[in-house]
Design goal:
Length: about 110
């Protein structure tokens, strides 16, 4: 999942075929939507605030540790499933963004 940091809406810019299989959304359905659409409500409510704090405090070193975080995803059909997430911040002169790798637990 590729997310635009500068939009301040955490919009999804690109997904992969594996993403489609995992979450049930096709790229055209999810493009431009807030990343929160992929989270259960309990996480959705705090996610924007967490990203705002990361952006304000520029704590990118915490994000770029290349370790997986156990969380939960929300499928298009409404069911919740466990996922591991790796997030990397991509600095740029034009458009900073985040890349997230999401995979199911083994």
């Amino acid at each position: 999942v590729h997310i635009n940091k500068e939009s301040f809406q955490n919009e999804i810019l690109h997904t992969t075929f594996s993403f489609t299989r995992l979450f049930g959304y096709l790229n055209p359905e999810i493009y431009g939507k807030n990343i929160n659409i992929l989270m259960p409500k309990i996480f959705r409510d705090i996610h924007d605030k967490l990203l705002e704090n990361y952006n304000k405090e520029n704590i990118n070193s915490k994000i770029n540790k290349h370790k997986s975080i156990l969380s939960y995803g929300l499928h298009k059909n409404g069911y919740i499933f466990p996922v591991y997430i790796n997030t990397i911040f991509l600095p740029s002169l034009i458009n900073e963004s985040y890349i997230g790798a999401v995979f199911c637990s083994p």
